[in-house]
Structure formats: structure tokens, C-alpha cells
Design goal:
The protein is α/β, with parallel strands linked by helices and 708 residues long. 50% of the residues lie in helices and 11% in strands. The two termini are 35 Å apart. Bound molecules: (S)-3-Hydroxyhexanoyl-CoA.
Length: 708
């Protein structure tokens, strides 16, 4: 038998243990091992019933996702997957009890459903999360789940991909019993109870499959929901089709439909991108030269300086993770306003069902407002979130340096300023780094962790680990202007404004990029964030601009008119009292006349050019950042853009998207823009080199990983 699966006995009960750390994925060897065990059990007269269980913390985390890339690249053959193994389990002459702890996800739940019974710990979770990888269940999950849980629940689970807790799964009929205490002992006792009963085969349980009349509205609602919530994504709709097949076709034919849809999804660009994202989110936590076992500083108490929108949001993030936090501001009115905002945000979360009132009450108790630095001597971490100005930040950091205990982490939430310069006013630059949260801080998942030239490994390791505890994706970046995300965002927005100045309408630019998959168009995003923010930064850095290089001007002119975006009721759009954007013909007319003044020829701009100019501007800057070492890997840039800038996950991030298009093609198009628009479009040397060598950013990441 395979090393990954062990067969033992507890008197008359056979025990099959899957032991493939860390998550008992169904890697090669695991299905074969289970199959051998079933053969052995069938022949063994001493075995009356069987328990299948996972070793360690979990049952089965699903198919081995690494295998999918091998299949789509032709490195391994595609068999019939797990289908035949699952039939064998279901046809086993002895009752099979699946004992679930941790998770039974994807192929894990499919294995579980092929058993005759399922028992689980109270903390276990089950789910068909395949859509999150751009695929659908591929081993009859879409066929067996509706037979256990009913059509509505199965559609929801397969199309949304969210996990279901054990108690709910019990109610839905996916589980048969919850076990208190030791799972294996409970499962063995359960197996003895049912050993002489006729074992029910899930594939024959058709009574929950409903009628056409009952099911039609369920599928219609699910399709509408999927089209809205998962815009442009193919897998959720395919998952619904597969579950529908379970209700209209016999089991075997339903499985064939599922198989065909699964294969189509697996070979799609969307699935490849989403699998890249799955591994990418885990990869960014790995920092070369900072080993996994680097000692970290426990963060038991924290403080935030500045009770504005960002400071309040950051205090909420810390409190939500159970960390007591001091929230300091310089004057009482600002502190009161900040606290009122925090309370309003929490009240909204309760209204939307995200948190319960008791949870919120507990969190609010953890946030202690203060006007002084008293008690700062006891905190392990301070995050400064005062107004974005170097002089003020320096003042705060020299105060913190005097007050905070040795070993405390001194972090700045700056989005643009130089961390080394901030650190220079302290006696401990090794304790200083940037923690760049994204607005709203309590919602957005991204946290750029900015490494100064003296920041210690221990502090970085602590903040990377803390980001996970805070529910954030922490990505380590270098200390350049705008760090990674905003540095790339600048040319992206610049191109969107150029396009408007050249004759595209504001609505067209936004719509084309929204249709590409961005959460919002760049101009609407500017209105939301406040056009004055970029305007102020541009004014501050104007002296660094190279003379003779084209600058986007229309946004600045809007600011000069007081049109800052949503907060002033007008920016690129006008806004009604519900902050709904209304296209503004006045803006179109003004931009046309300003462009005429400067002599920018007006033309019709095709959608393809809008996408290429904006997205390739991101890619080109991303390539520079990568080469200069401000991002560790291309995938780090992708994860930043997916979690902080609304880039569509099914395109894998800007760098992955460029790989998908082909770097030669991207490079050639950038050269074409350079000929038309000048040196702003000079191709990044790294992009030029990779394109010439026929390589990808992903190749480069692999090469770096191999060298590490
Ligand atoms: C599927 O099942 C298709 C079927 O229908 C059958 C088709 C025929 N494979 O997340 P963590 C790695 S599709 C390979 O940090 P946690 C992960 O990369 C699959 N590797 O731990 C990481 O590696 P490293 C459906 C996997 O405790 C390590 O395990 N299933 C897999 O926070 C630890 O992971 C899913 O989509 C895998 N399936 O969370 C479930 N899963 O240490 C995906 C994890 O080198 N997985 N790894 O970075 C999860 O949701 C979480 O990983 C899980 C554990 C909840 C299991």
C-alpha cells in the first residue's frame, strides 16, 4: 500500500488513514492507496465496517492543485480523475464512514460523499471551493451534493464556493452526526452502530433532486446572482449547469456533463490565473533571507497615532483581531470625530450582518481614545496615521522614540513618504517600517509592508505574521516613491486622463476598464478617493518632472475649479445626493476646449487601445519596479493589484496578464506607444529582455525561487 495511506484495524472496524501533509491533498498515490485499502477490506471477513480519516489537523483539502498545471501543460495524463475510485468506495460491500476534522474541501468532500455515512467534529468545515480556482467539482461533487443537501444548497455551494460549518452541514443532510470528543473513537463507535444496516449509496438517493417546476427558479436566481457577483467569470455558471444536469439526467450521464465542463474550465485562462493567485497569496509570505523560524515580537498591545479615516480604520483592524489599541489624536474634537466614525462603521457592519452587536461591543471596549502619549510605553506596536507630511511625521516619530519601550515596532502608514527619512529622526531605525493600509482599512485586504534600509528581519517577520492575524495579505515592498501599488497606479491613471484629453469620453474609459474586469474605472476611482489627493502630490513633486514631457492636466484643472470628486459632489462625474455618478457634459466640453488650446488632436479611440494603454502602463512600471528590486517577485505585484486596486482575480494580476498576452506582443505594443507618445512609453529594460528571450515574468519568479 502507498506510504500516503495506512490501513489498520480496531477489531472488526477497518481504519484507513490518509497521511499526506500538510492538508492531505489527493496527490498521486493517495487515491491509489485508498483503492488498495478498499480492495483489502472487501476481502477481509473480519472487517464489518470501515472508517476513513485524515491524519493531522484535517480530512482532505481537495485534489492536489499543483497537479492541475502539470495536466494543462501536458506533463501528466488526465485519467477519469477520482470518479472510478469513488464508485468503488460507494460499492464497497462494508459500510464506509467518513470521519471529518478540519476541512473536507473539493475532492475531499467528493470522497466524503462517496462514503455511506459522514461524521465530523463541530469545528469541521465542508465545501466545494473549486470555483475559486476557476474550475468546478470534477469528481461528481455536483452530482452527489444535491442528492444529500438538496438542489438549492448544492447550487449555492458549487457556484459560490464558500465553506459550510459542520452544524449547518448536518442540518443540510451532508453530515450524519457530529462527534464530541475524540473523532476516531466516535467514528469507530458510529461504524459499529451501523455495521449491520444496509449502506445507503449517495448516487441512488434521488429524493432531494426536486421537480422541474421547483428547480427552474433556483437555477435562474443562481445564474443572475453569479453574473452579478462574479462578473465575467465562467466557472460559477458552469457549476450551475453541472448541478442542473444532476436534476435532469441519470447519475452517470450527469457525471459526464460535469466532466466535460470541468475539463473546459481547467484548460481556461481564468483557471490558470486563479491557481496562480492561490499559490501567489501563499508565496508572498515567504521572504528570501528571512527564514520561517525567525523569532517574532509578540504584539499584545498596540497604539495608533491619528484618529482620521485611516487611523480609525486601522484601530478597528487591530481590535477585530482582539488586540487592545490606544487611539491618539492631538485635539479632542478630532478624537471625537474619529471615534464617531469608528462607531458608525461598526454599526454599518452590524446592519449588513457582518458582525453581531455583542462582537462589536467587545471590539469597541478594546479601542481606548486618548489625547496623550501616556501608556505608549507599554505597547508593542505603534502605527502612525497622521496627515501625510514629512515634518509632522518626523515630529511624531521623535516623540515615539523617546516614549516607546525598546523592541517596540514603530510603523508609519504613509502612502508616499520615504521611510528611511522618517526613521532617521529615531535612535532605532531598525524598528521602523511602513505599514501601508488601503482605504477603507477595515475592509481592504492589502497591506504593503515597507522595508527601510535598516529595518530588522525580526520586525519584518513580525509584521508579515501579524498581517495574517489581522486578516490582511501582507506583501513586503521596498522604499521607493509610491512603493509598489501607488507607483504603478500613477502611470495607469495618467494614461486614462491622456485618453480623455485625446477624445475618449470619461464614461468610455471607465466602462472599457470595468468591462475588462476592474472593480471600478480609473476616473471613477479618482472621484472616490478625491482628485485633490493626487493633485497635491503632483504639486509637491512638480520640481522632479522632466521638462518637455507630456503631463496630464485635465484632472488638475478640475481640482482648480474645486471639483475634487464625490466629496464635493463633482469631479470627472457629477454626483446626486446618493453619490450616484452622472456623466457630466460640462466636463466633456471643458476637456475638449482645453485640449484644443494646447493642440491635442481629437479622435475616436477604440476600446482595445484604452485597455492596452492603461494596463500596459501598469505592466511597464511593474517591470521597472521588479528590476529595481522594490518588489520581490512578479507575483507580489499581482497580489498587490488584486487585493488593493480591484484588478480582476481571474486575470491573475497585471504581470500574469502580460504573460498571458505574451511579453513580446506587450513589448511591441509599448514600442508602438513610444513612437506615438514619446519617452513616457520607453519599454522597461526587463520587459525588453524577457520579450527578446521569449520568457515570462512567471519564468523569472521560478528562476529566483530555484536560486533561493
Ligand atoms: C479539487 O479538489 C477538484 C476536485 O473536484 C477533483 C477534481 C478531479 N493542493 O492555506 P495554507 C498547500 S480542487 C496542493 O497555508 P491553512 C498550500 O499551498 C481543490 N497544495 O494552510 C500551502 O503550501 P506552502 C479544492 C495545497 O491551514 C500549504 O498547503 N480545494 C492544497 O491556512 C498550507 O496551506 C481547495 O481549493 C491543495 N489542495 O489552510 C482548498 N491546499 O506551505 C484549497 C493547500 O508550501 N486550500 N495546499 O505554502 C485551502 O483552502 C487551504 O489551504 C486549507 C488549509 C483550508 C486546506
Amino acid at each position: 500500500m502507498s506510504q500516503l495511506v495506512q490501513f489498520t484495524k480496531d477489531n472488526d472496524i477497518g481504519i484507513v488513514t490518509i497521511n499526506n501533509p500538510p492538508v492531505n491533498a489527493l496527490s498521486p498515490g493517495v487515491p491509489e492507496g485508498i483503492s488498495d485499502a478498499i480492495d483489502q477490506i472487501a476481502k477481509d471477513d473480519g472487517v464489518k465496517a470501515v472508517v476513513i480519516i485524515g491524519a493531522g489537523r484535517t480530512f482532505i483539502g481537495g485534489a492536489d492543485i499543483k497537479e492541475f498545471g502539470k495536466m494543462t501543460s501536458g506533463m501528466t495524463e488526465r485519467g477519469d480523475g477520482l470518479l472510478s475510485l469513488l464508485l468503488k468506495i460507494e460499492d464497497c460491500p462494508k459500510p464506509v464512514v467518513m470521519a471529518i476534522q478540519g476541512v473536507a474541501y473539493g475532492g475531499g468532500l467528493e470522497v466524503a460523499m462517496a462514503g455511506h455515512y459522514r461524521v465530523a467534529t463541530r469545528s469541521a468545515q465542508v465545501g466545494q471551493p473549486e470555483v475559486k480556482l476557476g474550475i468546478i467539482p470534477g469528481a461528481a461533487g455536483s452530482q452527489r451534493l444535491p442528492r444529500l443537501a438538496g438542489v438549492a444548497k448544492a447550487v449555492e455551494m458549487c457556484a459560490e464556493g464558500n465553506p459550510v460549518k459542520a452544524e449547518e452541514a448536518l442540518k443540510a443532510g451532508i453530515l450524519d452526526r457530529l462527534i464530541e470528543g475524540d473523532l476516531l473513537s466516535g467514528a469507530i463507535a458510529f461504524a459499529r452502530e451501523i455495521a449491520s444496516e444496509r449502506a445507503p449509496k449517495t448516487r441512488e438517493r434521488n429524493h432531494k433532486l426536486g421537480t422541474l417546476e421547483q428547480n427552474t427558479p433556483i437555477f435562474a436566481a443562481a445564474r443572475e446572482n453569479a453574473s452579478k457577483k462574479h462578473r465575467n467569470m465562467t466557472a460559477p455558471l458552469a457549476a450551475i449547469d453541472a448541478v442542473e444536469a444532476a436534476t435532469t439526467l441519470p447519475f452517470e450521464e450527469g457525471c459526464q456533463v460535469e466532466r466535460k465542463l470541468f475539463t473546459e474550465c481547467l484548460f481556461s485562462d481564468q483557471s490558470k490565473a486563479l491557481i496562480h493567485v492561490f499559490f501567489g497569496e501563499r508565496e508572498v509570505a515567504k521572504i528570501p533571507n528571512i527564514p520561517k523560524d525567525t523569532a517574532v515580537t509578540p504584539v499584545n498591545r498596540a497604539a495608533v497615532v491619528g484618529a482620521g479615516t485611516m487611523g480609525g480604520g486601522i484601530a478597528m483592524v487591530l481590535a477585530n483581531a482582539g488586540i487592545p489599541v490606544l487611539l491618539k489624536d492631538a485635539d479632542q474634537a478630532a478624537l471625537d470625530r474619529g471615534l464617531a466614525n469608528v462607531q458608525k462603521n461598526y454599526a454599518n457592519s452590524v446592519k449588513r450582518g457582518r458582525f453581531t452587536q455583542p462582537f462589536v461591543d467587545e471590539r469597541l471596549k478594546l479601542i481606548k481614545p486618548t489625547l496623550s502619549y501616556d501608556d505608549f510605553a507599554h505597547v508593542d506596536l505603534v502605527i502612525e496615521a497622521v496627515f501625510e507630511g514629512m515634518a509632522l511625521k518626523k515630529e511624531v516619530f521623535s516623540d515615539l522614540d523617546c516614549i516607546c519601550k525598546p523592541g517596540a515596532i514603530l510603523a508609519s502608514n504613509t502612502s508616499t513618504l520615504n521611510i528611511d527619512e522618517i526613521a532617521s529622526v529615531t535612535s532605532r531605525p531598525e524598528a521602523v517600517l511602513g505599514t501601508h493600509f488601503f482605504s477603507p482599512a477595515n475592509v481592504m485586504r492589502l497591506l504593503e509592508i515597507v522595508r527601510g534600509k535598516a529595518t530588522s528581519k525580526q520586525i519584518i517577520a513580525t509584521c508579515m505574521q501579524l498581517s495574517k492575524k489581522l486578516g490582511k495579505v501582507g506583501v513586503l515592498v521596498g522604499n521607493c516613491r509610491g512603493f509598489v501599488g501607488n507607483r504603478m497606479f500613477h502611470p495607469y491613471v495618467r494614461e486614462s486622463v491622456f485618453l480623455v484629453e485625446e477624445g475618449a469620453s470619461v464614461e468610455a474609459v471607465d466602462k472599457v476598464l470595468y468591462d475588462f474586469g476592474m472593480a471600478m474605472g480609473p476616473l471613477a476611482t479618482g472621484d472616490l478617493a478625491g482628485l485633490d489627493v493626487g493633485w497635491r502630490i503632483r504639486k509637491e513633486y512638480r520640481h522632479l518632472e522632466k521638462p518637455g514631457i507630456r503631463q496630464a492636466f485635465a484632472g488638475d484643472r478640475l481640482c482648480e475649479m474645486g471639483r475634487y470628486g464625490q466629496k464635493t459632489g463633482a469631479g470627472w462625474y457629477r454626483y446626486d445626493e446618493n453619490r450616484r455618478a452622472i456623466p457630466d457634459p460640462e466636463v466633456a466640453a471643458m476637456v475638449r476646449s482645453w485640449s484644443a488650446e494646447i493642440g491635442i488632436p481629437q479622435r475616436q479611440i477604440p476600446a482595445e487601445e484604452i485597455v492596452d494603454r492603461c494596463i500596459y502602463a501598469l505592466v511597464n512600471e511593474g517591470a521597472r519596479i521588479l528590476e529595481e528590486g522594490y518588489a520581490l517577485r512578479a507575483v507580489d505585484i499581482d497580489i498587490i493589484y488584486l487585493n488593493g486596486y480591484g484588478f480582476p482575480s481571474y486575470r491573475g494580476g497585471p504581470m500574469w496578464y502580460a504573460d498571458t498576452v505574451g511579453l513580446r506582443k506587450v513589448h511591441d505594443r509599448i514600442c508602438e506607444f513610444q513612437r506615438q507618445h514619446g519617452e513616457l512609453w520607453e519599454p522597461a529594460p526587463l520587459l525588453k529582455r524577457l520579450a527578446a528571450e521569449g520568457r515570462t515574468f512567471a519564468d523569472l519568479d521560478k528562476q529566483k525561487a530555484a536560486a533561493a
